[in-house]
Fold:
Amino acid sequence: MNNELLKNYAKLFVQVGGNVQRGQTVVISCPIACAHFGRMVQDEAYDAGASEVLIDWVDDLSYRIWFLRSSDTVFSTYPQWKVDKLKDQDKKDAVYLQIDSSDPELLKDINLERIKKYRKASRGATKEHSRNLMTNAQRWSIIAIPSTSWAKKVFPHLAEEEAVENLWNLIIKAARADSDDPVADWIKHRNILAKRIEYLNNADFSKLRFSTGLGTDFTVGLVQNHIWVGGNVLDKHGTPFFPNMPTEEIFTMPDRNSCDGRVVASMPMFYSGNLIEDFEFTFKSGSVEKYDARIGKESLASILEIDEGASQLGEVALVPNSSPIGQMKTMFYNLLFDENAASHLALGKSYPFSVTGGEKLNDEELKALGGNYSLTHIDFMFGTSDMRVAGLKHDGSETVIMENGEFVI
Structure:
C-alpha cells in the first residue's frame, strides 16, 4: 500500500476518528504485525498535540497459544493490574484508538467453555471501563488494516500478496480514505446520516416492523424517549468523534420486552472463530423463544447462554442496501465492516446514550426503561435488497421508512 495513502489513513483516524485534542493521553491498541502503521498513528497523534501516546501491543498468535495451553483455572479470573491500568487511563481522559487486523479464525477449535468463562470474567472486571466507552464518556475509535490471514480468509483463491492488496483497496474505499480530501468526505457523509437521524427522532415511532423475502416478519418496540444516533457522536465534554470507521448505520435502543416474530439472518456470523450460517431467531415478548442454524448451532447456543440479556436485543440498526460496503458483495468476517453492509440487530447490552439521559442511569435503571443489560453485544445482519421497514406511531398509524432496502425518508 502506498505510504502516502497510509499516512492519510492514519491522519483521518486521529483527526476524525478519535479527534485527538492538544494535551490528551492517547492509547493505541495495535497488533505487532502492524507495528509500522501503529507508529504512524502514534506520530499523527503527537502532531495533533497529544501529550502522551502509549501503544498496547497485541500478539494474536500468543493469545491463541494461551487459550490452548493454559490451565482451566486461569479463565475464570481477570488480572487486577489490567483493571487498574484502564482506570488510570480513564482518569486521564484518554482517547482509545484500536487498530483491528485479527485473523477471523484465531479462536477456531478453542474450547468454547474456555472462551465463555474468560469473556465473562474480563467483561465483568472491566465493566466500569466498558460503560465509559458505551456511554461515550471516553472518546474511542476503531479502524482496520489487513493481515495476511484475514486477507486469505476473505480471498481464499488469491495468492497472499494479491489478497492483502485487494483487502487494502476495499478497506481504504470503505473508510472513504481514497479521495483528495477524505476529511471533507466524512463531513458530507456525517450530514447525510444526520438528516435521517433528525427525521427519525422527530417521528418518535413506538415500533418498527420489518419484512423480507427471506422470511423475516418481525416487530420491535422502541423504548420511550429513544434517541437515534449514528455517524459521529459527542463525548462528555461535547467533543465529536467517530467510534467506527467505516460507519453507515443509524441505530437506537429497542424495548427488550417488546420484540416479536421471526428474524432470518441475511449474512453469516463469525463468533470466536466459528462460522454460523443460515440462522434465524423467533422472538416472543422480547426473548429468543426458538433458534436454528444450518451451520454453527452450537456456537449460537453459546451466545444465548452467556447470561439472561444475551437472548434479548440491545440495538436495532438501519443500513441502506446501497451502502458502499454492502455493494462490495464481500463477506469481511469482521463486524467493523459486515455490520455496515446491511440492517442489523444486536443481542445483548444496550448503548445507554440511545435513550434520553441514559448516560446518567445505572444498569437497573436502564432496564426499568426497557433497555437491556448483558456482558455481550453481538450484531447480526438481516437486511436485504427487498427489506421493507415501517414505523408505527403510538396512535397505530404507519409510515414506510425503507422500501426495497433503501430509505424513502
